[in-house]
Amino acid sequence: MASGAIEVHRHDSALGQWQVALRQPHAALRAHVAQLWHGAGQVSYQRDRILPQARSYLLINLGPPQYMFLPGPPEIRVVFDDIWFSGLYEGPIECAAPQGSVLLGVAFSAGGAASLLPWPQAELANRTGPLQDLLGPRARQLRQRLLETPSVAQRLDLVEDWLLAACISGRNVHPLVHWALARLADSAGRVRAEALARDAGCSRKHLTTLLSRSVGLPPKSLARVLRFQHVLGRLGRQAPDWAQLAADGGYYDQSHLIRDFQQFSGLTPAAFLRSAQPDPGSVVVR
Fold this sequence. Notes:
Mean pLDDT: 89
Number of strands: 12
InterPro entries: AraC_XylS_family_regulators (IPR050204), DUF6597 (IPR046532), HTH_AraC (IPR018060)
Helix content: 25-40%
Low-confidence stretches: none
Shape: globular
Domain HTH araC/xylS-type: 174-275
GO molecular function: DNA-binding transcription factor activity; sequence-specific DNA binding
CATH superfamily of the domain at 7-167: Jelly Rolls
CATH topology of the domain at 7-167: Jelly Rolls
Keywords: DNA-binding, Transcription, Transcription regulation
Number of helices: 12
Oligomer: single chain
Radius of gyration: 19 Å
Strand content: 15-25%
Protein name: AraC-like DNA-binding protein
CATH class of the domain at 7-167: Mainly Beta
CATH architecture of the domain at 7-167: Sandwich
């Protein structure tokens, strides 16, 4: 199998101790899958927030139960102890792993899940839940095989084989979807939906329908997520010139950036800078 080498990152700080193994996917999957990872360890904080990205995820818990919290009132704690799928999101997901974690994940590109998996992405956007609801026994069988496989490299091989053999659906995604996703990514979300539709030679309504069906979110929402991620990538740990950062990121003004920041992280930009980050995609909240 012509998969990439495994890159191992170890973390040991006041936030906890963990190890993450990252690998680029098999060549046949690279147009659809951005990355595979296997993480294990123990954190010292109570909860973190997973920040939205223009990706969907296959998540396989191979360790103690973890928890996802649905906002209330009342707040609802959902147990994650098997295999889940998480669609594209327009807000953060609050999680906890009080007993440690062993997690294997597949990160799909924005249009990757629609190309590989026979599921309606419009129904899965802003949702995270059990994969067995969609795949039945096949999901349980995959997880059981992973539990019986001690090697991280072999676990990643198993998931790749499963994606190649069991999940490639042969579904055709409209070429305009791939084109629009590339334009949005290349511009870091700065291209507007109206300009995108004009350049595509179709109505905004038609383009919105295509992306919503295949990706789960309309172009305007995808652009907002991509702009937010671009700003995150530009942040250090010192307060920047927010007005300049907003202008460079394609926001109308600083207040526009702050509104999006609060929606996507649940924090003001200043509060975000004061918060610890276990990794670039999450922030500690308790």
